Amino acid sequence: MVGMSMCHAETISENGWTFLRRGSAYKNKVFFYFGNAVPWNDAQGYCGSFGMRLATVSNSDENKFLKSLTTRSSGVWLGGSDLLQEDKWKWDKPTRSITYYDWGYYNGIPQPNDYLFNQDCLTYGLSDPFETQYTWDDQTCSNDYPFLCERIVRVDSENWPIE
């Protein structure tokens, strides 16, 4: 019985390692793109069920890296919102202020615009008329979009995530 338990633990460890290897490593994070479209809260919960959170962005280099992970033209959920206080954008889990921004223009309107007073969750998508440039947009949290999760890890040689 003890042998089976150890075998099971090794299998879980191996599955976790395989899962991490399928992510995209950037410095001390591994990012995972999930193509199934769900509301923002469901995306956050899905990330949380794997010990992750919706992706956060610290600077322009990390922002560019995230944008390289998908060719999706419409929104992709990130971990920011102004749900707690309008126009005070924060990263959720943990709650901390967003200090780097990449807001765009959608249909010539600068973002975030809180259209109809209910756009409180952060996405990025192709925003210009030629669909060549990804920028941030505020969207209604109940909309269904694919999403990016992140997991903080130690990274060896920028390529190998280690738990």
Automatic annotation (TrEMBL):
<dbReference type="Pfam" id="PF00059">
    <property type="entry name" value="Lectin_C"/>
</dbReference>
<dbReference type="InterPro" id="IPR001304">
    <property type="entry name" value="C-type_lectin-like"/>
</dbReference>
<dbReference type="InterPro" id="IPR016186">
    <property type="entry name" value="C-type_lectin-like/link_sf"/>
</dbReference>
<feature type="domain" description="C-type lectin">
    <location>
        <begin position="26"/>
        <end position="150"/>
    </location>
</feature>
<dbReference type="InterPro" id="IPR050111">
    <property type="entry name" value="C-type_lectin/snaclec_domain"/>
</dbReference>
<dbReference type="InterPro" id="IPR016187">
    <property type="entry name" value="CTDL_fold"/>
</dbReference>
<protein>
    <recommendedName>
        <fullName>C-type lectin domain-containing protein</fullName>
    </recommendedName>
</protein>
